[in-house]
Structure formats: C-alpha cells, structure tokens
Amino acid sequence: MFTNRRAFLRTAALATAAITTAALAACGSDDGGDTTTPVTADQVQAALDKGGSITVWAWEPTLKQVVTSFEAKYPKVKVNLVNAGTGNDQYTALQNAIAAGSGVPDVAQVEYYALPQFALGKSLTDLAAFGAGELDGTFTPGPWSSVKTGGGTFGLPMDSGPMALFYNKEVFDKHQIAVPTTWDEYAAAAKKLHAADPKAYITNDTGDAGFTTSLIWQAGGKPFAVDGTNVKINLADEGSAKFAGTWQKLISDKLLAPVGSWSDGWYKGLGDGSIATLVIGAWMPANLESGVPGAKGKWRVAPMPQWTAGANAAAENGGSSLAIPKAGANNALGYAFLKYATAGEGVKIRVDNGAFPATTAELKSAEFLGKEFPYFGGQKANEVFAKSAADVVPGWSYLPFQVYANSIFNDTVGQAYVTDKPLTDGLKAWQEASAKYGKDQGFTVG
Amino acid sequence: MTTQTTPVTAAAPTAPARGRVRRKEQRRSPLLTALTAIMLIYSLVPLVWLLINASKTQEGLFSSFGLWFDDDFALFDNIRATLAYDDGVFVRWLLNTLLYVVLGAGGATALATLGGYALAKFDFPGKRGVFAVVIGAVAVPGTALAVPTFLMFSKLGLTNTPWAVIIPSLISPFGLYLMWTFAASAIPGELLEAARVDGAGELRTFIRICMPLLAPGIVTVALFTMVATWNNYFLPLIMLKDPDWYPLTLGLNAWNDQAATAGGQAIFHLVITGSLLTILPLLAAFLFLQRYWQSGLAAGGVKD
C-alpha cells in the first residue's frame, strides 16, 4: 500500500508541476498590475453580520474547537472545516483546484516552507489589503518574517516551531551522559550512547529536508536568497558547511537510527529508548503525549545544542500559516476567520488544546510559561520553547519552489545517508537539481 | 488475474473424471507443495498480522512482538473506539464506500454485461474499431486518467460530489472485454436463433435466456469491479476534499496521517482495526460468490 501511495503521489506531483509551470507562465503577463483593492475592518464586520459559509482546508487538529467557538460567536457563519490531506497532499489538491478554477477553499493551511511557492504563483491574496500590516508585533519574528514573503503578507502565522532538544532523561541517566549544549558534545554523546548500548541511537535521521534546513538556519547559513524571481542557491555556505561537518561524522560512524520520522517505527523508538533525543519544533509535546504515552515522565526538554559554545541561536522547524487563496469565494469572511484563529480568541483555544502559538502575547503570558508538563516530569517546558522563539536567527528564507525542492531531497542529499557519498556532495546535487527546476519554472537562478 | 484463473482452468479438464481417478492420480511434488506453502504463508501473514495487531492498544502495538498477542486483548475496545472516533465518521465512510460500490461497481457490471453481450452476439460495422478501443483502454491505467478526469469534472462542477467517484467507476474496459469473450463462448448462436424463431424479442431473449447463462461471468465481473471500487484510492483522493464523502481508503489514510503532523493524535491502533473492518466485507463477498465465480471461469475454459 505504501509503495503504491508513493507512486501515486509522484504522479500527482508531476501533474502539479505541470500545472505550476502553466500558472507561472500565465502570470508573467500581468506583472505589476496586481493591485488588490483594500478591504476595511468594517467590510469584514459587515460580512460577518451578513453571514454565509466558508470552506477551510486544514489538517491542524485544534482548529476544530476554534471553528466551534467561531460559529457560536457568529451564528450566521457556517465554517466547513475540511482535512484535504496533510502537507504535500493538500498542496497538490490546492494547486489542482486553483488550476481548475473551482472548489478552491476560502482559507487554507500552508506551511511556512510552502508559502513562498503559493505566494509567488499569485495564488494567494496579499493580506495587507485587509490591514494585516497592523498586526506587526503580534507574532514572533520567525513566523512573521516567514509570512512576509515576495513583497506582501500572504498568510498569518498559526503556529510556530522554535526548536529545542527533547531527550530521554532515563536513557541519559542510565549511561551517565550529560545533556549536550553544543553540537560537538552532541556528537560525543551519540558515540558514548551507542557504545554503551548498540541498540540505542542519539536520534533518528534518514535524510529530512525540514530538519536539515532548520539546522543550517541555526548555524547561520542563508542558502536560499530570493528577490522577486531572482533566486540564489548556495548550499555550501558557512552555515551549511558547519552542519555538513558535524552531521557527516554522525552518518559515517553510523550513530543515527535508520528510522524515518513520523513512521510507526519512530514512535516505537521514542517509546523504548532506542531513539534518545529529538531536535525538533516546540509542537512536539502533543505528539509525544498521544503517540508515545508509555514514555510519560521519561522525557525532558533543553535548549538546542549550539554551533558555538555559549551562543544562543535557534531556528524554526515546521509550523504553518493560514492563507486566503485568491480564487476563494468569500475572501472577507475568510479573513475574519483567519484573524480569529491566528490572532484572536482562537489562539487561546488552540494553545489550550496543545498547539504551540506564534503570538508574542501568549509566549510572554505567565500562565503559558508557568505550565507544568506532566509528560516532562513537571518541567515548565514552555520556558525553553519561548526562549528559543526569541533566539531564532533572523534573515532566513525558503525557495519559492521549496515544496518541489524538498520532494527531491531524498534523491540527492538522502544518498549520503545510505551510501559512501559525502554529505557535501549530496547538498551540491540538491542545489543543482533545485536550480535546474527553478530555471525550468522561469526563475533566474544564480 | 492470470494467477487466479490458471489453477481453475487447469483443474477443469479433470473435473468430469474426478470421482474415479482421484486417488490413483494424486501425485505429490514436494517442490510444488513447498512453493505453494510459501505462497500461502506469504498471503496469510499480513492478514494474521492485521488480526493480531487489531487486538492491541496503541501502547501495546509498540511494546509487544508483532506476530503475537499482547497481554491486553483490546479488539472489542478498538472496534468500539473505531466506530465512535470523531463522531462515528468511520461508519459514514463505510456507507460511502458501499454507495460507491453498489452504484459504481453495480453499474459497471451492468454496462459491461450489456456491452459484452452486444459485441459478442451482434454484427455491426465498426466492431473491430470498438475492439481496438476496448483493448487499448484496458492498457491505460486509471491513475493516468485521474488528473484529466479531475479537470474535466471540475468544469462540470462535479468534483467533491459522490458522482465524481461513481461516474468514472462505471467504466470497466476489462470487465467489458471479459464479458465479451465470456458471452461469445457461453451463449451458443443456435440458442439465440431458436429463441428468435420462437418469437422472443431481443430484450426478452437477453433477460430470460442469456442472463442465466451469463451469470457466472457477471459474478466474476462484479467481483472484479467491486474490489476495484472498494479499494479505489487515487480517484477519490483527487476528486474528493470533503471528508463526509470519503470512502474508507481515504479515511483510513487520513487517520494514519494524523500521526505525521505536528500536534496530531497518533491512532495507529484505530487505523489497524479500521483496516481489518474494511477488508471483512470483501472477504465475505468472495466467500459467498466464490462458487459462481469458479464455475464461471471453468465453463469458459471447458468450452473449446
């Protein structure tokens, strides 16, 4: 079933690729003539009073409660919450709907890494027209800069994933390993742990684009530079080199569990101690609680290991925005819901249900920071996450075709994990393949 | 297809002599027995795994050996939870799947029967052309047509409705081809002539005389189209966005994906139990219809 699904998705991806090309080619003609008429808060309010129904495509689980309370507050509005697939599946569906010109949702969840692709394809409404600029300062810098892409504000941050080190304290204590504060210590801990217990690994990694780009981000790398349709890709810059150097050691010494993230084997490893740490986004606690209930009390959270001892650098990992596709039927009502969910009362509802916020107010609130996590032995984990959110290295950007680039990550960089090919060669191959695709799509790639 | 027909047709010639010769002729080849045993295990292990693991809790799934039971026997709790999860959406998906199978596979079978009979028993200009188109259509995988079909359907405003799944399911080139060859051999031309001489109209001839003869073929086609529609994944994936119209395949996948998203609830135990519940109706259909199906294929094999 799984291989089938892969093959299916590949077909779908190809179809999407074809559609994207057409979309980009088509939008070349109306460059500059892209002015959206402003929509005032009164007009949004009027839409709410008038009522109607909107369709929201999202897979984020906590939105369900947000919809319930939104409908209670605005009884005339019916919100049709649709899970149109997770991540890539949904993007394929969204591209197809946009290309077909029908069935386009009013609001769609789009991950930060995918937002530039939809924004530049002119598929999304610039929320500046709704006065989204006023929300400057509402969100933490990482997510806020992620939605401000391509000269507009193409989404509002829904959640964020400032990274932290999740570690299995029981395993660390058993083998008397200190919690690593730098990546060198992390590599040393990996060695010590695997020597003490050949079944245990410091972490799992079979090549994960999101993780790799996040670590390069933290290391200060800026491999992707985007200015309109001019794109520069350099996966050999200083930050990328730092990452490749450390990670190559872990790969060569076979210190990484060969288990794909999000697989059943991954959940198993997180539960039985064979995967001892995860460096991952702050949304992870909810997944641990539901997916690995057996390890309750064993895990703890610490700041991300640093590339330079004593530094305080962090990066974002994952996270999504809510955006408004241009072809949606009811943009004003869509924005009303979007704002409610990302910057209004919806935020609290989502946080209460386990989501990690992207809003500064929540991240600074005493209630949020003081929350004790029974799963982490009563630790106030949000303090670690909030600090990480503040320490995110500024200036990062994704490619305007990152969805495609990430989809070929395993064919290029992934090779370094299963063969003797050096990681740097893999990154180079990824750069070349991405650049070629970008050129084919009409970008100027330098 | 071939793997399923071969044993049956091979067995068919010996069928008339079965009673007498059986004991003497029964020669065993150790190699073949071993190979068959391996095939049997290969086919059964996933089922056994499914059955065993449907009885485990989410925690038990990861802490116990995969091919044996955990201490907790949670099958009934799991079934209850599967049916109740997310306001009982699983039941809704089950009903959707039944709807698609009844209308889609049922319609496909009816169309294939009518078309196959007509092509086998009537001569008309362009028959060779039809033959070429049908054979060509058998060779085109449905997956390749899904995206163009989607674009066409969205122009018609049919996406995100049950019709988007039912209408494409109505077309079964392979079923048509099967009915065609089956009708050609199962209905003697003399019988039709006799019916016509006796004054039966074409419709009456078809319904009263040919349908019973075609029954085994119809059941075979019905089974194939049922399996295809029941397991259809890609077409509904592209066509449907509203979980209220999902068939089981999409629904289970959505549940499985919950484990792969930030903040999602991992419900592997429900996915496994749901999968078990999903295959039960198909198993039942095969067991009930098996007799007709086998005699149908054998009849075709004996003919010439």
UniProtKB/TrEMBL annotation, chain A:
Transmembrane segments: none
Record family assignment: Belongs to the bacterial solute-binding protein 1 family.
Signal peptide: 1-25
Protein name, entry field: Sugar ABC transporter substrate-binding protein
Record's keyword annotation contains Ribosomal protein: no
Source species, domain of life: Bacteria
Species in which this protein is naturally found: Catellatospora coxensis
Protein's GO biological process: transmembrane transport
Record keywords, A-Z: Signal, Transport
Transport recorded as keyword: yes
From TrEMBL, chain B:
Claim: Transmembrane is one of the keywords in the record: yes
CDD domains: TM_PBP2
Residues covered by region (Disordered): 1-25
Subcellular location(s) of the protein: Cell membrane
Regions crossing the membrane: 31-52, 98-119, 131-151, 163-184, 205-230, 266-289
PROSITE patterns cross-referenced by the UniProt entry: ABC_TM1
Membrane topology reported for the UniProt record: Multi-pass membrane protein
Main location as per UniProt: membrane
Biased composition (Low complexity): 1-17
Pfam families: BPD_transp_1 (PF00528)
Domain of life: Bacteria
Matching InterPro entries: MetI-like (IPR000515), MetI-like_sf (IPR035906)
Keyword Cell inner membrane assigned: no
Cellular component, GO annotation: plasma membrane
Keywords of the record: Cell membrane, Membrane, Transmembrane, Transmembrane helix, Transport
Family: Belongs to the binding-protein-dependent transport system permease family.
Protein name listed in UniProt: ABC transporter permease
Gene source species: Catellatospora coxensis
